[in-house]
Amino acid sequence: MSITSLNSNKVKLMIEENQFDLIIDLRTEDNYEKGHLQGAINIPINQIPDKMDFLSYYKDKKILLYCGIGSQSKSACKVLALNGFEYLYSLYKGIKDYKYSLEY
Questions:
Q1: Which class for 88: exposed (0-12), middle (13-18), buried (19 or more C-beta within 10 A)?
Q2: I want to staple 61 with a disulfide (CB 3.0 to 4.6 A). Which of 21, 28, 85, 89 is the partner?
Q3: What are the residue boundaries of the structural domains of the chain, listed by start?
């Protein structure tokens, strides 16, 4: 199990190189629609427990989680780690600190 915090520069580079198998935006659907990372799916943090069946496919794959300011993604990473997920990444300081263009 490993949880790694990444800055926006590293996240951008890893997205460009297709290094993540899954990118999860933990914010509300409204915030997701206002702009999200390239390739991200929206699973609000309160829905993570309900999505464990879907997420289980990614237990041994690289997952990036992010939220607004970075605190919820750390919490979600810990929950996934306790459920056997291996490669978890969190966007340091969340999307508010992401300096690059977003998808809409």
A1: buried
A2: 21
A3: 2-97
CA atoms within 13 A on the CB side of 39: 15
Q: How many CB atoms lie within 10 A of CB 71?
A: 12
Burial of 59 (0-12, 13-18, 19+ CB in 10 A): middle
Query: Phi/psi zone of residue 18: left (φ > 0), alpha (ψ -120 to 50 degrees), beta?
Result: left
The burial class, CB within 10 Å (0-12 / 13-18 / 19+), for 2 is exposed
The torsion defined by the Cα of 93, 74, 89 and 78, in degrees rounded to 10, comes to: 170
Give the burial class of 5: count Cβ atoms within 10 A of its Cβ; 0-12 exposed, 13-18 middle, 19 or more buried. middle
CATH of domain 2-97: 3.40.250.10
List, for residues 9-66, the tens digit of each pLDDT value. 999 999 999 999 999 999 999 999 999 999 999 999 999 999 999 999 999 999 999 9
